[in-house]
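Section 3.1: Structural characterization of target chains.
Under the original work plan, the team committed to producing a structural model for every single-chain target entering the pipeline before any wet-lab resources were allocated. The record below documents one such target. The sequence was received from the expression subgroup and is listed exactly as submitted; it comprises 238 residues.
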Amino acid sequence: MSQGQPQRPIKYGDAFPVSGDHANQTVAPRDAAMMQSAEGLVLGLTQKGGAAAATMHSAADRNEAVGAVAHEEFSAVGEGQGVTVAEAELPDRRVVVESVGGQVVRLFAQALSQGVGQLRERTGDVQGGGELRQGAGDLGEGKLTIGEALEATGLTAGHKVVEQSDASAIEEAEMRASGRSGGRSAAATEKLPADKPVTWEDAERIAAAEMRNNPKLTTHPGGVAASVDAAARINESD
């Protein structure tokens, strides 16, 4: 690239597995600040490495340096819909889902180091910056499983009505996890009788099941297929 040619800003679609209008939004500094605040509110520490805020800060700094955004600027999706960090503790692991405007941008699972806890959920929705409690820590241990991706869907979907496309995706996910060929479909937050790490083939099959039963032939942002796709991308990068 020549020095005289403007550098292309980093969009959400360049950094994360998002779709639609989200993918074309330029990552902005205030979006990154919101995500960092949400991570601090829910997790109680400053995340490093693969956490969403670190990626967003890096992209936003680059975009500010090339003049694509101002230091106090939000993206349209960040300002309009905010960011969310949600956490659930399972018997042996905790699942953390980070979303921008309802679409999953990062999904982590971390082994619990002490004891066996009961299911616990905490969610932080942030519409503006905030102070952080300082600390250090990294999320992401081992491969993410189909069950953990379904748990992530339960955190991001909230009170969304379960449609036929959701049920079909969940059933396909359960079949992929257990290796069976049909039967009862588990709820998105129900523990699967068997589980396995998410692969690209799993993500493609589950997305196809969700799309087949959607009149618009698309997957839902923040839905089952989106969470499984995010998990597959993370597993592939490990």
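The chain has eight helices and four strands.
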